[in-house]
UniProtKB/TrEMBL annotation:
It comes from Glossina fuscipes. One of its GO terms (molecular function) is glycerol-3-phosphate O-acyltransferase activity. SMART domains: PlsC. Pathway: Lipid metabolism; Phospholipid metabolism. It is found in: Membrane. InterPro entries: LPCAT1-like, Plipid/glycerol_acylTrfase. The keyword Iron does not apply. Pfam families: Acyltransferase (PF01553). This is Glycerol-3-phosphate acyltransferase 4 isoform X1. Keywords: Acyltransferase, Lipid biosynthesis, Lipid metabolism, Membrane, Phospholipid biosynthesis, Phospholipid metabolism, Transferase, Transmembrane, Transmembrane helix. GO terms for cellular component: endoplasmic reticulum; membrane. The chain crosses the membrane at residues 6-27, 165-182, 188-209. Belongs to the 1-acyl-sn-glycerol-3-phosphate acyltransferase family. Residues 251-362 form the Phospholipid/glycerol acyltransferase domain.
Amino acid sequence: MFFLSIIDTVTVTFSLFIVFLITLSAINKSIKARRAYVNLLLRVFEYGRVSEGKLNLNINSRSRSKSHQLTEDANKSEKLVAVNGNTLINRDNVLLPTLTENTLDKEKFTATIKDEKISFNFEECLDYIKAGVEAIIEDEVTSRFEAEQLRSWNLLARTNRRYEFINWKITLIWVIGFTVRYSILMPLRVFVCFVGVIWLTICTAIVGYMPEGESKRQLVNDILKHCFSVLSSAISAVINYHNEENRPNTGICVANHTSPIDALVLMCDTTYSLIGQRHGGFLGILQRALARASPHIWFERAEAKDRHAVAERLKQHVSNPNNPPILIFPEGTCINNTSVMQFKKGSFEVGGVIYPVAIKYDPRFGDAFWNSSRYSMLQYLYMMMTSWAIVCDVWYLPPMYRQKEESAIDFANRVKGVIAKQGGLVDLVWDGQLKRMKPKKEWKEMQQVEFIKRLKAD
């Protein structure tokens, strides 16, 4: 009887919480509990950063005392730097010559080359050697498909390779945080997610039977915002929207892509039509639920590869002013919240207005990046629900139009540059599909041609 009473108490508590949550979402009100929770976490992280900084200062002091035992020549030749606890070669210094007093000076070294009548100038190929060494150490593409490295520990995972004891206070905070995240937050979030999906399915099924018209579109917009607000509670999302006067109403909305929850983040503010491949499992349930209430474009795997069919469906959707703006992620894959990679030109060939949106997550509270080649959707949801929170900023940028005689590729690059600049992201020209495939043969040949031209010019 005692255990039954505990179960009944927990059930009633959870039920009251869900009713309270749904009520707040329905009336579009917030008690700002999540923001207060995030502010508390920031104070804890700051304390941890200061404590970790003191530890690193002590380690560096001991390292400096040991380094005095080495010769000055050895210090100049090694040029090592510590990054996030890992020792990496400093790429700025790795190829610089280490000249000492016993080494020939520049004039004598040049004279020796002239005497031997050597026509090859070694300095002219240093940039190619440097590019090769950089690719070995850390190229700018592969690192975009791994979790973003943090400047300091966020009490979730270590950013260095080995455990370092900081102090007992930090250890106690970690134990308390671990207990809260796994014994309180995770069960509560799973329950909220389960209820949210059921609630979304019920609501969209009801409005799906309503006749088409302005009243239905307005009701669908309010209901979807309400349902996604409930789902955002399952990851303790705190979303800051900027420049809301640029929020899209029609046309095509394009955004950088970090995670499957990008759509959830944007749908909490307004309704979008989505385009993508049909899925099964959890995503399939959401797709079918959304399709009942508003127009979306779902493709089968084979059909999605037909660019003409996709473009035609897009044109049909955009041509109807009653349809919501369609949300597209032109990168075609998730990038780790540090950069924007190549935008596919398909959505920029349709014509009409393009509404750029920049999304930037705060990695201190949880890594929103989905490495689909490493984690399944279930594993990813587990990581989201055991993180501290998901905090992000969304910027609505002014609408952009394709200029006369501007190619779709140039237009896509111009939009990509605007999104990267606003979100503080690195603008890269590489195709995000390099996460799953090898570089194209044409790219290698282009580099070879450029190298040959350089040699001929020299």
